[in-house]
UniProtKB/TrEMBL annotation:
Residues 15-25 have a biased composition (Low complexity). Residues 1-52, 205-224 are annotated as: Disordered. This is Uncharacterized protein. It comes from the Eukaryota. It comes from Gnomoniopsis smithogilvyi. The lineage of its organism: Eukaryota, Fungi, Dikarya, Ascomycota, Pezizomycotina. Residues 26-37 have a biased composition (Basic residues).
Amino acid sequence: MRRLARPTGLSRGFSQPQQHSQSQKQQRRHIRSRKPLSNHPRGVPLHQGSKPLKRRFPVFELPDIVLDLDAEGSPHVRPFDAHKDGPFQEAQWGYDPVIDEVKRDASLMKQTMRRDLSRLKAATQVPFSGERLSDLDIMTAALMNQSSNVDPDNDSQSRKLDTFKRRDSRLQNDLIRNGIPKAIGRDATHVIPFMLHRRQLALEAIKDPSKRGPSGGDDESDLNRGIAGCRDLAQLRRLCSRIDRPESGVEFSAASIDHVHAHLLVLLQSGEEGTSAADILKFVNNVTINRLSANKELNRSMTLLGLQLASELSLLSCILQYLQICLSMSFITSRDDSSTLTRSHVGMALLAALQRGEATARGTRQQIFTLLTGRGPSSLPPMPCLFGLVAEDHVQRLEVFKLSARLLGELGALRLLMHHWRQRAQQFGITGQPMESGQQLGHEMQDLDEVFAEAFQRCIQVLSGGQTDDISMDLTTVTGNVEKDAGLDLQNINVMEIVHARRETKGSRPSPESIGKPLHIEEIKDAFNEQDMRTSMGRFQKLIERAAIDA
């Protein structure tokens, strides 16, 4: 037994007009004499409200009927009885649908939708200001500036494009005035590679020098004189803000940015109020991010200045961002002797940050490893790097070699540390820099051995503190191939970051800051000097287990 749609009585107004004609009365008498199937002409009119219904012949849906069996088992149709069939239907189907309730729920849903749409519209129409500028707005301005994907032939689309340009101009001005939000500073590590790749594509597309625009002429000379006339950083910031606006019509050339860089150095050396290293770095940050977002060429001297200031101020995230830019744009190369001082300065800043324990954010240690060695995940090709895997392609300076070993120890890259140890005698004993005497060579090699001993002890501390009962690292596998071993070290670094992130989430005690008993340098040398790297790795594993027990 199953019930059809229950009537609501909405058609009573149509079936009971105020003035009853004689024909309608006759029709009612005829209806009362019908059988039960047609004796209840109640229901919902079809297509209600679409067109007027005929008065004499109203159209109805099927009435409220029930298909039942009589005493002899023959099926027959009878009217629905609410007192008899209602409880049986609820027991059989679990629910008695009511059309009025469904309509009420639909009405409430429509009201909720209208309220949500009004709130969303009010939120999107909030005027932009420096206080209400969101990180999403900054990201939109950085990634969608100079966009021409909208069809200018369509009037409505053109109006949308004009609105976007005005909004984008406000965002750029707020970016220049207020600086980069902290959230964007953290996410810039992922955004900057996209911007650099977009810049590289733009340079490949514009191969004809005649298509690169005018060189400047008189406007450039006036701009350089204006830069030289700025007495403090505030005036220089206002001048650059006016030039960066699209309506200014003046473009920064490479020579003009060199003038800005020289003027910044003068202001930095003056020591006046408002010209500290932090203020200069904020100015350089804004210039760099604006030129990146506008897909314009970056200046080598300005970018290297940002890297230098970030290293002096020990800002790890800023160091990584500028180092990524400098390596991608070939402002720093591992084969250039003129970059040795900069590489050493940046390496010392990274080492100090690692020793202070600042590289705790997820993915930071992996990024440092990639920037140092040029090897990321196995799916990525080799990238420009600060030091390289080993010093086999060129003769590195001794201080840079020591610094690289200490950084690998801080990261826990045991296998690469072993490869560096095997390269040390060849680089600095045979084909290395010429020494004045054998005594000096022996002294330098002794210092290098002490550096490796300290780096290995730090590596033991990092590896022993990066394991738990349910998460362990691979400390047995070694291939002898420097690239494959670098991939294994990167996997261990990833495991250590997972362990540290879990400890921070649980609020547990961090790993110990020092091992219990320092290892003797002769033990480390004996383990390093094994002919087979697998045997050497086995001895290292025993030393790591012993140091972890003594801690």
